[in-house]
Amino acid sequence: MNSGTTRKKRVNGETITIIVILAIIILLFAFFLKDVMLPLFKLQLDNDLDGAAALLKSKGFVGGISVILIEALQMIIIFVSAEFIQIASGLSYPIYISLPLCDIGICLGATVIFLLVRVFKFNSTTYEKNRGMIDKIASNAKDRNIVILLYLLFFMPFIPFGAICYYGASTKISYGKYMLTVSTSAIPSVVVSVLIGQAGKLFFTNSIPLWLLVLIVIALSVMLFALIYWFMHKFVLKGTDKTPESLFFDIFFMVVKLFQFGKKRPLLGDDLIITADVPYLVLANHESRIDYFYLYYLSNLKSPSYIFSKIHSIDPIFRIFQKHCGFIPKKLLSDDPEADAKIEQMIKMGFPVVMFPEERTSPDGRTNPIYENIGAYCKNLDVDLVLVRITGSYYAHPMWRRRAYSSDVKVTVDRVIKRKEIASMTDEELNSAIKETLYNDVSLCNDVTYRQNGKAKGLERILYRCADCGVLYKTVGRGNELKCLSCGSVHTLDDKYRFTDNIGSIPGYYNAIRTLEEKELDSLSLNASVRTRIFNENGIMSKTGNGECTLDKNGFRFRSDSEEFSIPVKELRPLAFTCGKRFELYHDGKLHFFYPKEDPVQVARWALIVDILKSGQTILPS
What we know:
Blueprint: H1 3-45, H2 49-59, H3 61-77, H4 83-92, H5 95-118, H6 125-140, H7 146-155, H8 161-169, H9 175-185, H10 187-204, H11 210-236, H12 247-259, E1 267-269, E2 280-284, H13 291-295, E3 305-309, H14 316-325, E4 328-330, H15 337-348, E5 353-355, H16 374-381, E6 384-391, H17 393-396, E7 410-417, H18 419-424, H19 427-438, E8 475-478, E9 481-484, E10 490-492, H20 506-519, E11 525-535, E12 541-552, E13 555-560, E14 564-568, E15 576-578, E16 582-587, E17 590-596, H21 603-615
Parallel strand pairs: 1-7, 2-5, 2-6, 3-4, 3-5
Antiparallel strand pairs: 6-7, 8-9, 9-10, 11-12, 11-17, 12-13, 13-14, 15-16, 16-17
Helix pairs in contact: 1-2, 1-3, 2-3, 2-4, 3-5, 3-8, 4-5, 4-10, 5-8, 5-9, 5-10, 6-8, 7-9, 10-11, 16-19
């Protein structure tokens, strides 16, 4: 018998074996489908862990087999979450049973994937969606050994196990090494899910209180995150750490995408950006708190470094991402030589930099004044300038509304100013070009229809004063109406976010309030008893307390038992604020949060008064 015949018989034998294995698996799925698997999937859709645990217990041995099959199916399908069945098994069986069941299910799913890829050349579209992240880890890993690489991938968050198995099966790794890697590397994640299920069982049997259950879940999640963090440091972040090429950069925006699930992607008009030489500086207007995410979709030739408010460094989780993503923390509305140095460093490394020169989100949908000499600053950086206008994001998630709506957002590269052209312009010419290009008024360019019945909810946190009777802090936004509780006047927003009366628009109402404030400016004196939180240069809270803030035409003053300072108007910077909560400013390098004890909506008034004192400008038409 010649070698060709022998090889042909061996191939035929392997094919028959594979077909038999797949047939057995399909029959097992079919056998358990009606009585166990379909009910379990329904319970998963309802997020009913108690019902799932009860069903598995009632089925005994059959329930255990179902755990294996469902785990395997979730591996193959990829987009179905595996944590549900793992936690349910932890609720139903002791850990020495639930852990092997889940691991066997993972191995079964991995085997099917191996057969699908190696024999039938199957290509998963869900795997393809994760391929970019997987390729990036593969290119950055210090050790190119495929086994070590697969271990790294299994430790990475947000990459489904099934996608990793599709990747592993597409390489030249042997089945034995492939299975050994899959079976062992999935254990940490499965252990966490099963232990959460075990803790849930103790809670449901009244063995532990709710607070202890929550503490256990948090502790297990932190342990898993710490393990992932250690692996990334040890093996993945080679030469890319603290830059936008870091894997953390992709993970950060992947998390943001999850939070934006169901929202529309922005419409892009970014053809001009290819004319800019890397590195370049991106300047954009700032309508909402998630504008940085919309700019993520720009066709950057290289991932950019984002300038974020240093306030976000207070959050320890964000501080980790900020450190490893190459984000640049900057003191809001304050001089920050350290941030300037980091911007120059990123540009020297060849990364674009994204900046919002307003340094705060728009309260009324019009671009805030850009007070700094932005022209001179851009000239000193000596790079191309990309000017981007964002429209529509104000209505998607304005600063005064907690809830975000799905909205049509446009991100347009309106102008690219080349280095040579910048060098030929005066500072004032460049200032004017930047301000004119970035300026936007949402009330003038809104051609979108908004059907939501809740457009005015929270609007009183910006439109804090009645435009009709002038009374303070009596306006209330309900449904699509802004009503004054004092005089009873009602202003209704239509489907274009315009008031149906002569007030016109949100900027128009804001103008009316500004006019009232300007008339009273000479005699105005704002006073507020406040709670304070003070943070040091590293974003660590160093002090809390109580005090009193005062604002008049001469400036801002603060007094407490331990601190007292004043800032004259000429040195006062615009106030950043969180609607209905606090306003903030820097003094002596420290970040001060001020929380009014009464009428917290007044923080918008403090910010507007400072703008009036600083601007000396006529009101822009609405």
